Amino acid sequence: MHLLELRDVRAAYGNLEALHGISLFVDEGEIVSLIGANGAGKTTTLRTICNLMSPTTGAVLFDGRDTRGVEVHELVGHGMVMVPENRGVFARMSVYENLLMGAYQRNDKDGVRTDMDMVTGLFPRLGERMKQPAGLLSGGEQQMLAMGRALMTRPRLLLMDEPSMGLAPVLVDQIFEKVANISRQGTTILLVEQNARRALALANRAYVMETGRLTLEGSAADLANDPAVIEAYLGG
Amino acid sequence: MPDRSRFPIDDKPGPVTAANPSRVATLVHRLALDRMSWVDVVLLLIRIGFISAVVIGSTRTFMEGRFSAAQWGTLIAAGVAQGSIYSLIALGYTLVYGILRLINFAHGDVFMFGAFCTVFLAIWTSQQGILERAPAITVLSWILFAALISMSIAVLVERLAYKPLRNKPRLVMLISAIGASFFLQYTARGFFSTAFRSYPTVPGLDGRLELGQIAVPHVQITVFAVALALMAGLYILVEKTRIGRAMRAVSENMETARLMGVNIERVIMFTFGIGGALAGAAGVINGLYKPQGVSFIMGFFPGVKAFTAAVLGGIGSVPGALIGGLLLGIFEALGPNLVLTGLGIPGSNQLKDVIAFLMLVLILIFRPQGIMGEAIKEEKA
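Predict the joint structure of the above. Result:
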């Protein structure tokens, strides 16, 4: 059984269909990348997985169960969490409070403390800035905070929407290193990226998306050598 | 190609110096006057007119020495008491605005409903002699009762009048708010008739505390103390508790808060409930403070004024609501005597409300973000 499976999912903004039947799966322990150009429907796919949008037809299965009708806030309890596009940090709240928001549904104080140490171990910069408002962090630090906050939910599946967006190349390296790190600690990851080269270097498998459809899929290594992918996404 | 005909001397080369006056003139012209439309000119005149009226009025009042220092002190004390009632109501506006970006126009009537229902309890406790025996506890029970009533009304209004419209354009909810306001007013009128009813006099609150030359009525001190305690409680709730953190998170970014597992429906209900409870408590202390009593229409003016206070402080900001309420109370108490009397306007105390609403208009024109407010960012999808 797949941890996450989409079966012929269609989704629309009003009358405008954005996803024309997406089928994909993510297995426990994998890093799967979803790459594609701007406007291909990558973010819409993630939003549909999180139930921020409902599929018009088709089904999203998490851990074998259809998520239709499950409230967005309940998914965290099931073990799914998203690091949203543009990070979505709570700018006026401190770094510490942002991390606590990740632990919002948890009652195990000791576990939360352990995870807080784990997050500050993974992102030492956050540990140094616990009391600062998140809005004063740099873009890279905010991305780290958004990831740390998501980890505070103890997710089984981490969805990431464009973690490299707007970051300097050095920082992108750092972020991708952390993603690999998180994966090694046992969290399954579905990564949406425009930066195809890096996403393919990191992932086990990948899907290529174009205008609301998946056009290619396979192991990340194969896709990285696929002439069509090289032509379109890896800059020839 | 820019339209050069408007600036015929613009093409003259040369540095901007006193020796090159036409160049300076052009620059001044381009920087200031050319950018000003007629509206800007009118606004500037309003600003100048308003400031000079305040300055001239106050100086003349002081020159004439119409009021003693003690009288000013008394006025300020009354302003602070009235202002703290505004603050309590303003908090309800600001909390709800922070989360839903909605001006809850029914909030003044939530305040009225709590005060009105409780007046019957108050009269009963007075008739039974309970009030005489244990005044402090009885008044506390009034406050609690009013808070419960107003809390329930606020939550009901949210569930029935706003929740079904959550995904509609914001204007639709605003119109629904006005409808809810009338609904509450005329429900109260139907139940309780149009008569005014007064809160009974609480033993111990009818005296005055002499602070040097200033005599402050006990009731004003009580009003201020109760309001201060409630605001401190709210501050702790918002800043230090889990639900308070969730409220702040939802107000900053509703979608991310949901993704982190926050049940926003619960947070919204809680926010309306807290705002309602504060308004109910404000209703009781307002009843203690105002001998003319409560009526079905009493929510309107305090409602609009508390809204003014929230805007003055910066809507969406909790400290802003506190400061805005107190400032508005003080301005209202001082303004007529200080400014209007000096300008020779008769019956100035009856123009109190004019000052409050003039302030609302001026703030909205000149500083819409208020004192503590920041420019509101519309959340992106």
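The interface with chain B takes residues 50, 52, 71-77, 81-82, 84, 86, 88-93, 97, 100-102, 104-105, 149, 153 of chain A (CB under 8 Å).
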